[in-house]
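Record type: ASSEMBLY
Status: queued
Input:
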Amino acid sequence: MDTLSVELGSRSYPILIGTQLLARGDEVSRHVTARDVLIVTNATVAPLYVPPLRTALVDRRVVEVVLPDGEAHKTLANVSRILDVLVANRFGRDACVVALGGGVVGDVAGFAAACYQRGIAFVQVPTTLLAQVDSSVGGKTGVNHVGGKNLIGAFHQPAAVIADTSTLDTLPERELRAGLAEVVKYGLICDRDFLAWLEQHVDALLARESAALAQAIRRSCELKAQIVARDEREHGERAWLNFGHTFGHAIEAATHYTSWLHGEAVAAGMLIAADFSRACGRLTAADVQRIGQLLSRLQLPLDVRAIRATDALELMRMDKKVQSGRIRLVLLDRIGTARVTADYPEEALRATLAAHFG
Amino acid sequence: MDTLSVELGSRSYPILIGTQLLARGDEVSRHVTARDVLIVTNATVAPLYVPPLRTALVDRRVVEVVLPDGEAHKTLANVSRILDVLVANRFGRDACVVALGGGVVGDVAGFAAACYQRGIAFVQVPTTLLAQVDSSVGGKTGVNHVGGKNLIGAFHQPAAVIADTSTLDTLPERELRAGLAEVVKYGLICDRDFLAWLEQHVDALLARESAALAQAIRRSCELKAQIVARDEREHGERAWLNFGHTFGHAIEAATHYTSWLHGEAVAAGMLIAADFSRACGRLTAADVQRIGQLLSRLQLPLDVRAIRATDALELMRMDKKVQSGRIRLVLLDRIGTARVTADYPEEALRATLAAHFG
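Status: finished
Output:
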């Protein structure tokens, strides 16, 4: 087992990465210290991993909320439902919420924990690659609004992240690839060498070779932990982590969070963001091609022609990174170096959107 | 105009106390720096004070949400409604929410500001005595749940508090007296001299003499600002501010937030808390009598016999201050000195409840 740390003073917490952490149970029992525990999970994950989690917490009072699976259920209504269960069971400030599942479960459960009694403890037990390498780390919690993604939420750091890589054995192919998109993101925004390593290990990662997956998860968490420690509230470089996301959120919203997985939309969004970086005179055409090639080899969908460019632009304007009417975008100066800017020709953005969208 | 400060490092903010601050408008314009402003208010306050507020913000894009008046509307549904308006108007992270009204408006609007895009700026413009001396200062925001008061919320500090004491001219008698209950609280928990001053100025305060009201507001804000600066997240002494509130919340919940104003319930709750402090061997019977006399002279309702003692206890168990099943209570060691404790005989609590409730 590897242990990393997110250094945030009194709110610092460990990220544990290893095999069989749920089955062994000792780390779960150690890091979930509360007497009263609410497990939040979804209908797909529940039958697979609630039993070992309950065994690990056998000496606690455990209550369960099972959400439907999917991004469409990342709603304020589900947060309200979790709060109702916390109240109905009279859980106090010393209770703990355990988020068992992917990014949706973690975001919804974390936000409920942030709001209940103005904030109770929560522990992330991510069971998807995407959640293990990205969404479970860093304290961003929240839900979608029909008007846009993650528009409602809170910063609320978990007490621990327990990433059991054995749970990836049951992860569908498509979700694995979606998670790899976020792994590629780290290489693109801040670690050129890691990107090269990923290019060399595409086959091993798709074949779920455990050493390759463990290394990809560890390095991703390490990079994210460093960025979050330096900029918890996203006043600066943390925004790099949104590379591809403004375009990706538009893709997800345009398709009502049903046909694209978040990581898939981010993959397509990163390619568009890379191409726009090129249009702004930053990346070379060869860089963009290299990025497209890696994402294609990872079998990620990149064709967004079914979405109209004008709809995409409209949805991008609802993104949280809009300031004083300008859409702030994360662009690459070169592979491994990102920057946030609103200083680009509006016409160039329209042209790039037109080149990719329908 | 007096200016106090809540010292919280990078989140410090001013409390402005003075007459005609809305009518003059310059302080409002200075402290609401955003281009996009959402005013949240209620149906009673809107016709009185939205016009001067809009005049002060004439160069901004101003949108308005008018809630029904009353504690019964401090709900997650109304937070959701405010969020819908923020989204519908495409307000960005640089927008500002202005809470114009009493404690309910401030708590609901502040919580919406805390959740929107994981936190945008908000400015408190309290128009009731209770909000000016207590709820607008300190960053506690949130809503009630059918299961209990303030069970859902966030710590989110305002960017400024603008307390225009001229707005008290239109405040109903009953609301004025409810606000004075929270003023008395400060004397009881931490300032014996202030309590004596209040006893000497009951008539002046009830007659709304401006010098007396200004002094009561200033001293209350000063004491609250000091406590919040030392203990923002209520790990210690901030809990003193809940003196009388656990009993009071039970009174409010038992009557479905309709028949008792919050300050009235706190008044009755403080007398019960004082009597329980006596039962625990802390206060003298003369102290309790003195407190009851002051609250009576302020014409606050103290008779809770219409509520059953068993119902009150049940509701107290849902209070946020319950830890590991024990109800933590704020008791007085003597007038001017409070302490939080869960260490008291359960039987004594039942006896005190039986003596006051029905």
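Annotation: Chain B touches chain A through 37 residues (CB under 8 Å).
Annotation: Chain B has 15 helices and 13 strands.
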